[in-house]
Amino acid sequence: MNDHAEPRLSPGALPGWMPGRRKVLAAAGLTAVGAAWAAAGGTARAAVRPAGRVAGRAVAAAASGSALAVPIDTVPHTRTWMAWPESTTIWRRALVGVQANIALVARTIAQYEPVFMCANPASVAKARATCGPAVTVTGTIPVDDCWMRDTGPVFRLDGAGGLDAVGLNFNGWGNKQNPHGNDAQVARRIAAYVGVPFTAAGLVCEGGAIETDGDATLMATRSSIINPNRNPNMAQAQIEAAMCAAYGASKVIWFDGISGQDITDDHVDSTSRFLADATGLVQLPLATDTDVWSNDERQQYRILSAATDAQGLPIQVTRLQGPDYNLIRSTNPNFVGSYANYYLCNGAVISAQFGDSGADVAAYDTLSALFPDRVVEQLDIDSIGAGGGGIHCVTQQQPAG
To answer: Lower CB count within 10 Å: N or C terminus of the chain?
Structure first.
């Protein structure tokens, strides 16, 4: 399973044009890695802590002053932020399909919490007509593409009603996609729209590259962040310090990841997620899958299962079985079949289904058991999947202060 495999350069192009799902990116159309930016089977172990628990330092920070930290995404939200794609250069003939998928995700989330869709002024009318009246569309925050998880602000809470936003200095996934000038400003512009203080982080990365448990522990892949296309001349220790400062954390659990085979260099959020403090989930492949992505998933499971969190607690890990790529609907060689790339909103888990009926049902059952207080909504988002992403990738939560 490759995360946002090259199709962000031309997502949805015909399968014959694309490199294979397991192959290294052909450099066609890519800019050189560029501008230096530097700043000096089943459930393995049942989760001990309920997944819906509002855990951690970000919520309890008021007890220690007003330290800002990024909460886990199980906390209540004020709204969800999304972005409306319009580029035929990026999406080619798949644009209509991906717009329909974006609208479906937005309408579904809007049943549970407000959704704000950023669109270019020329696309506002179409976005409103496609998404419907339950979704608020604004033309004041222009975008290049639809990947709000990576371009949007990361909101922080202080536990006493305070909210601010951090920008992760988006640079087009290491200058692999251009133009990205609008997307590079989305985080700052959303913060201004909301009316909260904004801080630029001390590193370059994307929101999908970092998972937080809301209790001082992060996880990420080295391939995506400790990478000269994002953070040249920065050592791991410097990058860790910048990540922890941005998120209000004190520990990073690292996976090796995979460099150069998808545009994100292997974002963590398509494979591994935190459910609560000291509780996680990893999507695993079929036992017969032996490709580099499957081995990466297995390594992430091994590392997370052996890890402790920032408080020294062993992390309890649930296994989420991935689909059989021979049984899913899509024949696109770059398709991302990630159940783990779900999105949590108020009262619901917005997840994907891919047409492998057995795996779809099993994923539904697993997510229902992990989030018993939420409705699991499974959506056909095959156009987004063919573009190399999932539901978490196209959403960004604004937590309630």
So the answer is: C
What sign for the dihedral angle of Cα 193, 194, 196, 201? negative
| Backbone angle region of 379, left / alpha / beta, with phi > 0 → left and psi within -120 to 50 → alpha | beta
- Please tell me the pTM assigned to this model: 0.87
In whole numbers, what is the pLDDT of the chain averaged over residues?
87
Could you give all domains of the chain from N- to C-terminal order, each with its CATH number? Answer: 57-395 (3.75.10.10)
Beta strands in 322-368 (DSSP E): 343-345, 348-352
Q: 72 by DSSP, 3-state: which?
A: coil
Q: DSSP E strands: which ranges in 45-113?
A: 77-83
Strand bridging mode 279-284 / 272-276? antiparallel
Give the residue among 316, 391, 401 at the shortest CA–CA distance from 350: 391
The residue annotated as part of the active site, out of 131, 205, 244, 393, is 393
Residue 244 is a catalytic residue:
no
Please give the average per-residue pLDDT across 70-76, as a whole number: 97
Task: Measure the CA–CA gap between 344 and 350, rounded to whole angstroms.
Answer: 6
